[in-house]
């Protein structure tokens, strides 16, 4: 069985592709950290963090994106942009928050678009 995080990322990719996004990369890792999904839609490069939970007693998935996590994500994104010579492109940062049921199926999916992390 897939780990819940990996399963959530697969579900997020399916959702994105269904909605016209082209997935360019997954789990891009550098010494600064990792970004879950990188995609393109309408000539904009979109960096996506996926958060999931099966139990929301301790908060919604998106509430687990801390200032420390944002700082790491910013560094990874800046590295990716530089490494791939994408300085002339448009960018944005999104979060996909998924609540899974006991069978690891989507109970709720929220897509927060164009969040400010000061790239």
Describe, in plain words, how this protein is organized in 3D.
The structure is a single chain. A five-stranded mixed beta sheet has the order 1-2-3-4-5, with helices on both faces. It is globular, with a radius of gyration of 14 Å. The mean pLDDT is 91. The protein is built from two helices and five strands. The chain has one domain: Trna Endonuclease, Chain: A, domain 1, CATH 3.40.1350.10. The chain is an alpha+beta fold. The chain starts with a helix and ends in a 7-residue tail after the last strand. A hairpin with a 2-residue loop joins strand 2 and strand 3.
| Shape estimate | globular
Helix and strand run: HEEEHEE
Annotated CATH architecture: 3-Layer(aba) Sandwich
Q: Largest sheet, if any?
A: 5 strands, mixed
Overview features:
single chain, alpha+beta, 27% helix, 5-stranded mixed sheet, 119 residues
Summarize the structure.
The chain is α+β, with helices and mostly antiparallel strands and 119 residues long. It is 27% helix and 39% strand.
Outline the secondary-structure elements.
Layout: H1 4-18, E1 22-30, E2 33-41, E3 44-53, H2 67-83, E4 90-100, E5 106-112
Parallel strand pairs: 3-4
Antiparallel strand pairs: 1-2, 2-3, 4-5
């Amino acid at each position: 069985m897939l780990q819940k995080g990996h399963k959530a990322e697969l579900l997020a990719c399916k959702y994105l592709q269904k909605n016209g996004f082209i997935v360019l990369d997954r789990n891009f890792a550098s010494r600064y950290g990792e970004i879950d999904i990188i995609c393109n839609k309408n000539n904009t490069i979109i960096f996506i963090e996926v958060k999931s939970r099966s139990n929301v007693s301790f908060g919604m998935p998106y509430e687990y994106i801390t200032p420390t996590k944002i700082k790491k994500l910013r560094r990874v994104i800046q590295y990716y942009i530089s490494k791939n010579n994408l300085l002339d492109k448009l960018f944005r940062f999104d979060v996909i928050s998924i609540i899974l049921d006991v069978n690891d199926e989507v109970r709720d999916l929220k897509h927060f678009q164009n969040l400010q992390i000061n790239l």
